[in-house]
Design a protein that fits this description.
By secondary structure, the protein is an all-alpha fold. Helices cover 85% and strands 0% of the residues. 2% of the residues are buried.
Length: 62
């Protein structure tokens, strides 16, 4: 159980670094908003922020 928790935290840390490197402060804000929306169980906000984050991450040349 501890190994799984540590692995999930490592994946979250790597995802955060990747988003920050590609999108800068906007990426950090979107990740924070996504985490808050998931925690608050706000489905519409979670979906919208998730889609925006994916679209911005998949943008070529940015």
């Amino acid at each position: 159980m501890l190994l799984l928790s540590a692995l999930l935290e490592l994946v979250a840390y790597c995802a955060g670094l990747t988003v920050q490197a590609k999108l800068g402060a906007l990426g950090v804000m979107l990740m924070f908003t996504l985490a808050v929306a998931v925690r608050a169980r706000h489905k519409l906000l979670t979906t919208l922020v998730g889609i925006i984050l994916v679209v911005l991450m998949l943008r070529p040349g940015a």
